[in-house]
Amino acid sequence: MFVINDRHTYEQLAAITSPENVLMDEELYRHTYTQLGGRADFYVTPETYEQVQAIVKLALNEAIPFTMLGNGSNLIIKDGGIRGIILNLGRLAAIHKDGMHIVAQSGARIIDVSQFALSHTLTGLEFACGIPGSVGGALFMNAGAYHGEIKDVLKSAVVVDREGNLLVLDAADLDLAYRSSNIPANGYIVLEATFVMQAGEYPAIKTVMDDLTHRRESKQPLEYPSCGSVFKRPPGYFAGKLIQDSHLQGRQIGGAQVSLKHAGFIINRNGASATEYIDLIHSVQATVKQTFDVTLEREVKIIGEDPLT
C-alpha cells in the first residue's frame, strides 16, 4: 500500500530526474488557474521523455497513484488534494518549425504555439491565441474556440502509454471530438504534438488574432481566477445564455461566483474553496435543468479527494 510522503519514493523519483524536480507535500492551488486545490504527495517536473517513461514505470511497478497535471487551466482540484505522484511537463516546452509543420512539446502553452505560428507567417492556429492551456491539455480535450479546434490542425502526437512505452500516433488514432479524445481512457501522456499549417501573410494572421484577443478580453472575466468555460455547449443552445436566462449571474457560494461579465464562467472572487466552487457548479446545473430541462455537461475536469471531515 502506498504511504503518503514515503521517503523511499522520494529518493527513487529524485534519482530519475533530480531533487530540484521533486517536491513533497506541494500545495496544488499554486498550479491551477482557479487557485484551488489541496496538497500533492509528490509533484514531479521531469526534463526528458526518458524521465517521463521511467516515472510511469516506477508508478506502475510500485503501485503508486499517478496523475497528470497540465497547465491547470481547465481543472478543479478538490480541497483534499491528490495522493501519489503528480506529473507536470512544464519543463518540456520546446517549439520548433519543420517545413510547414510546427512541433511543440506537451508543456508549451498553446497560446505560445499560436504566437510562434504568427512569427513564421503560418496560419491555422489563430483560434488558439487565447486558450490558456498547455499543448498536452489541448490535445487531451480537443480544445477549441471561435470555430476552430485542435483536430483541425493536428497531424500526429508522441505519447507514453500506461506501461511507459513511447508511441507515435496519427491524429485519427486519438478519436478527437467536441471537447474530448481517447487520451484519458487510454491513459496516454502526451509528450509532443505536430501541427499541419498553411502559408499565410503576417498582417492578415495578426489581424485575426488581435480581433479574437479583443473579443476574449472584452467578454471574459480575466481579472479573476477561473477555469474558463465551465460547461460544454448543449446541442441547440449556448450554456452562457441558459445560465443568464436562469437569472444566475452573480449567484455566489462562499468565495465562488457566477461571473457578471460572462455567465459561462465561474470565478474565484474571494478566496473560494474547491468545495464552494464545485457546489456552485452543481447549483447552476440544477437550476438550468429545472428552468429549461436542459442538462449542462461540465467541460472542466474535477479531480482529487474531498477534504477530511
From TrEMBL:
The active site is at 179, 229 (proton donor), 299. Its EC number is 1.3.1.98. It is an enzyme of class 1 (oxidoreductase). Pathway: Cell wall biogenesis; peptidoglycan biosynthesis. Cell wall formation. Belongs to the MurB family. This is UDP-N-acetylenolpyruvoylglucosamine reductase. It comes from Lentibacillus kimchii. The gene is murB.
